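Schema walk-through. Below, the input block comes first and the output block second. Nothing else is stored per chain. Lengths vary across the set, and this one has 161 residues.
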Amino acid sequence: MINNFIIAGNPFFDAYIESDVLGKLIFIGLIALSICSWIVLLHKFWLTHQAEKSSKAFSESFQMQKMNPLSLECDSPAQKEELNPFRTIYSILKRNTLELLNKNRHFGGNEHSYLSEADIEYVEGHLMSTITSQTKYLEKNLFILATVVSLGPFLGLLGTV
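--- output ---
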């Protein structure tokens, strides 16, 4: 009986019950958009938290190895599964740099090798594409929030009319 009293006294439930089919569809649409928004927001919060936590751990391990930055190991399967944009960028940088240094050492004929400007531009191109893919992954599904923000007021206005 108390639940019926709470539902009956709630203006949202009264408006839903007294509305026609179009009004009920608008209510359901607004609730669905709200649920989608909260799901996206919570998922983005979780992704950001995971990326921040794992990036701090990577930064600490990188700072311990900063005298020899290419000696940091980050290719274990457990580390690949976690979300860490900086570790991904670092692994691409390390892989491409070591490949170029080995190639230059092999074709240069001496034990010391260096990166040319073309080599640095090559590595920079790979880094930029990796940064772009990491940004795209972190910003995935944000269009849903933009759609809800622009669609919500129109549904509310339609419901008012």
